[in-house]
Known about the structure:
Strand order of the largest sheet: 2-9-8-4-5
Radius of gyration: 57 Å
Strand content: 35-45%
Structural class: mainly beta
Distance between the termini: 138 Å
Mean pLDDT: 84
Shape: flat
Largest sheet: 5 strands, mixed
Amino acid sequence: METRTLFHHREEEQKEERHQNLQMTSATRKTKFRTSEEEEGFTPLDLSIASALALTSEVSWEAKMRQEATILELEKRGQKRVWFGNEMEKLEKEVIKHCRFLRVRADKKALRRKAVAKAQLEKEVMELLSCRPPMFWIPLRAHAVWERMSVKLECTILASPLPEVTWYKNGVPIDLRVAPAGKYKIKNEFGMLTLDIRRCSLDDSAEYSVVVKNPYGEAYSFATVLVRKYYGKESGFDSEIYKRSLRDLEADFAFTLKPVFSREKEPFTLFCTFTSDLQEHQRDIRWFRDGELLKDSDRRQIKCGDREASLTVSCAYKEDEGFYSVRIPNLDGYNEQRAYVFVRDAAAETPGAPGSPLSVQCHDVNKDSLVLSWVTPSDNGGSPVLGYYIERCEVGTDEWQPCNDRPVKTCRTPILGLTEGKTYQFRVKAINRAGISNPSKASDPVTMIDPNENKRLINIPYDDGFRTITVSKDELEPKIKIPLPPTNVHASEVREDYVILSWDEPDPRGKEPLSYYVEKSIAGTDSWQMANLDTPVNCTRFALFDLDKGKSYCFQVRSVNKYGVSEPSLPSEPISSGDKIAPLPPPDQVLAFRDTNTSVVVQWSKPKEEPLGYYIYCREVGTDEWQTVNNKPVKCNEFTVPGLKTGKEYIFCVKCVNEAGVGDSSPESDATRVRQAISCPSAPRDFALLSCGKDNMSIGWKPPKRKGGTTILGYFLDQHDVSEINWHEVNIKPIGQRVYTVTGLDQGHFYEFRGYAMNVVGVGKVSEPSDIFKCEEWTMPEPGPPYDVRCTEVRDTSLMLHWEPPLYTGAGPVTGYYVDACEEGSDTWEQLNKQPISSTHMKLSDLETGKCYIFQVRAVNKAGVGPPSLPSDPVVVKTKPGTKEIEVGVDEEGSIYMAFEAPEVVDTSEFIWSKDYEGPPNPDRVQTEDKEDKSKLILKYATERDLGTYSVEVTDTDDDISASHILTQEELDELRKISHEIRNPLIELISGWNIDVLEKGDVRLWLEVEKLSPEAELHLIFNGKELTSTPKENMEACDVNLHQNKTQEQRERAASLSATSTHKINFDRANGLVELIIQDFCEDDKGTYTAQLKDGKAENQFTLALVGDDFDKLKTEADAKKKEWQRKHGPHFIEQLQWKVTEDCEVLLTCKAANMKKESTFKWFFDNKSRSDGQYDSKTGAGLLPLKKITKADKGIYKAVVSDDRGQDTTQLDLTKEAFDDILKELARISVLSASPLKIQPTAEGIKIYSEVKYYTDAMKATWYHNDKRVEGGDRRKTGTTMDQVWLHILDPKESDKGKYTLELFDGKEPRKLTADLSGKAFDDALAEHQRLKQAAIVEEHRAKVVRGLPDVATIMENKTLCLTCIISGDPYPEITWYKNEKVITFKDRYKMEVKGTVITITIEDVSSEDSGKFSIHVKNKWGSETGRVTVSVYKHGEEPKELREEKALIPGRP
């Protein structure tokens, strides 16, 4: 812009000069030039402005030179345009130019001089106006630094003129010449004062001040510098202390994430809590399953609060099973916890059915087909999985339709018959012998699209590649009528059951839609057959089933459009069906290792072939039932099995999973007991000073939270004097107790301590340093703090608090203790006991369930109350699941005992019993027996001296395991009573003497007692004499216990009793049954019966008095039954003739006879006529007469007769009236219940709706309804029944036939209705199928056929004339072609053909052996074709035909 303006001004000047030149004459005039000061005066304001401009916009020397050069150049250009003027004019111009230049130069120099003078004057004025005393705008501030660090003290001052600055340390001026070289650095720049102190030492801790002075005043500021000693650790923002301080603010997991056990279709939640509120950088809580990030969805909800986070799945499937992890971000990355979620199978509708399959996925999606895969279930229900049923559902509907009629054997199969553009979901059901499983989770929705569609899209970039235009290749295709053949025909997937054939579209393909025909032939032949049954394939994939095994096939494909069919493609390579996929062999070795109290780690070897995953199974030792561990295959070869019972032994096995299913079981692992694996302990904690002397300190601490599953063998302590750098060991040998006195300390020094715990595995991590304690002798009169405050026996509302007395007792002995409680998170302590208690334990009751408490204890002596102990660990007042209590009872020996079971024990655990919390019980009065995870305390005497509170604790466990029991007087009395009964037992009577009269008139006397041991003894006494079983009795062997040392007198008494009646004694010790059977019951059996029993120490006796009226009634009943039995000693019916109807609607007449011999006969009669279709089972005596399809002709009277030389018996059944009607009603009831749902069957005549029944009778009263209106038979609607079907046939269906059809059947009590909806798609599909069948019937009626006439074989002698005649049919009349050995016959010379309507005759004159062969006639019209075949055999004169010779050879005995 500056150049243009200058150029414009110069042109104006040149114009003015040219105008002056035109007015000038030849006379010259003398011109006088004045300077700017002479021409015009300037005011002081103008001069100040000019000076300011000159100072701020002074042009450099180079710029001036460029400007002058530009002016000269412009003047030269102007001179070129002026072609007139004289030399004087030129001289005048030069003078004017130099005058202008000199004037400008003089003006600038004058302005600069005046501006400098003005600025100097103003500066002096401003300095006089700005004079002020010093003032600290920003004073010094205090600093605290670590040793060997540098610190910089800074402040800002305002003062004019500049002041003098002096720095002081503790009031002494800092002299840089005296101070160590480089120690201090002082700066004063732009009003900022700085004192830099390098490598601070403890001597640099002081008060630093600065004094500033000028002529107008002075100012003072000070600050304190504190130098701290830091022992060999990094400092600053990268120091561990700084990081630890930040980490202390970060939230972490409060509890371990535990495994979750859920079931299909049920919700589950993973929940975790944090130790504090989440920081801002920790809000991004993330959940993962098997390493995959999880997000919110319809079934999954993720929540995150300040102190908690949760993941909820509203409806679980087995696909949701897996390792779940949650991550909390922190400064070092993130903290993570993992837990496995198990999803069990839902209960199947059929008991014993397998679990549902899982992981249903779709592959190779095309227009109308895809490949479906899934994973077999882990639980087969007890029998092998036989196959799978597949169902599909269109998205947006709830209707699931089957995809296969026969079960699929493997876990992968093609799905055909799908519709392009529709979206489907699939699910799978497994089947075994017991039934069908629940369906799997539905697959992800998949839309049927052409996979080649994307390949036909072309993206054309434009606008430098920022945009693209998508063009379909179809728009660029040329117009092609007859398509080209496809290319690259190959098998993309080969299986045992199917082969998927793939090919590429022809290129170019044309604009018309394409479909394809697939042809196949056996490899090595040229005979091609249609493989897709005349139905074109719409995509470039085709699945072929049922290929012959062992054969190889070649395939070729033809393209089809509306103009025609292409030539075939090049044949594929030979393809054969694949080998059968077999289940994988199991892993060779399975190992199980301890992990926690409820889990075991299982490892196994990987097989050679990689499986889809593994299923793990476990079995508790002592049981035969295997439990499924995981329902989703795991990929790794190591798995932690949770949820096991603590202390139980388990055996594990593993199975491989592939497409063929679940393989065989691996070898079983060794039995592993579920207990915590041993490891190094964690660090001890909470160090406390219990007593202090001049040069020693007594230190106590709490045990590690994790003991490592074994005994803590001891502790190692380190001490640290805060004035030193290094830590020093306190002890070399481990300390067995948790209290130790450290000696050799310096009085007045400060110390801190840390420790390590040790077990058999090794030494654990070091603890955090304790608080700093001062080594100063305690002289206070109050006692020191108690220590080791701990809680046991934690239950829902109570707990037991224990502590140890203080080591320092002060001015006198400790007289009591106060217990204080505080809720976690609160700072308010509440004293629980008003009066001090003297014992070192206290039972706390009436606590609030679920709350978390902390306790502390203070000791009391005569001087007062001492300091409180360290607080106890926080404890939640709630009974833990699985908590055991002390069991009190009496054992088999009659001893009173107390037993406690703790499955959580470790190998080194011990049971510590105590009485009244004062130490172990007196060993003279108790006996302790420990076995594995149980402990038993036996009271030897059980007297009042044993009353009290018994408690037990288990050592070496991480969690508290303890219990107590108060033995009261009432309970002791009850236990002693039971003990007495055990030590002096009586055999318990269950049922006293009972009397039964048997069939033959025998009398049975029996009683029942409790179960007895095999050594039990029985003595039966009758009227003072012992009874024995009669030796001559030919009955079943009985278990009789006779006294081995009987006297001679007892034997004589037994012999005298056996002379009158026969006795049998049964003594069933296992069931406690005593039985006496008396045959020929008579007057001699009247009297008193006593059973004397003895079993070890226990004994008892039971008496029965059989006299008076009781005896008379018993004898009368026995005599009557004896007579009845004698009557029935011949053949007779024990079950009379009766009828029953089976589920198959078959009427059975049954009866049963007894006492039959080989010679006995069994006959059936109907209306006094013998029937031979009756049955009789001589083994069971059962008679059976089946009436398979009963009709009115079966009405009548039925009889069954048994007879032999001992007699005859008859049973009869009248089926003429009500009984026959009852049978028909029962048949109707069963048949109605068996009626199948209505089925729709299109036919060539119309649409048939029917229901299948087992047996139709008129009593079922079948009635049809259309849209709730009764259907009457007519020309278009026919109704009818058969023995097994009820049907309605709609002829020539129309739109009015749409609607709901109902079949009503009556079962004798109430009607049953079956409905079918014949509308919408169902009607359209049925109508289309009817029309297809109708058209097919027409085609079948009119197509070309060979009806009859040709034999299979025609035999003729040489030189004869052969005539072959057949009858054909077809409309239009078919084309006729004869073949000989697959070649067309030319009719000339000897071969002639005659056609008379439908009769076709071929004549061969003068036949010879050359005419032998296979002849066939092929007829064809537009509806179809057919071939008739005949074999002609020509034999020579005098020879037998070959066929006749073969026939004779087949007939034995003929020459």
